Amino acid sequence: MGGTNRQRDPSLSSGQRSLFRRLDTLAFAQPAAFRFGFFLKERMDKPGIECQVRLREEYGGDHTPQMFRDMVAFFQKYFPQ
Fold first, then answer.
1. 19 and 45 share a domain?
2. What is the pLDDT of residues 19-34, one digit of tens each?
């Protein structure tokens, strides 16, 4: 059934739909914590789209500068000016 957190068909009948309510949001379960990156990677690997998942622990102590450099390099590679 679609994504991993979809529990049932979220379609609403025409009488239940409104401008602000198009789907039954209760048809979806809360996704597992800290799994979005891995879920996205699994989905993107199928059509061959590169997706990198990096964990904070991979960067060691002061991870922020290198983490941001890696993100910028990824975007520059795939979204050149």
1. no
2. 888 889 888 887 676 7
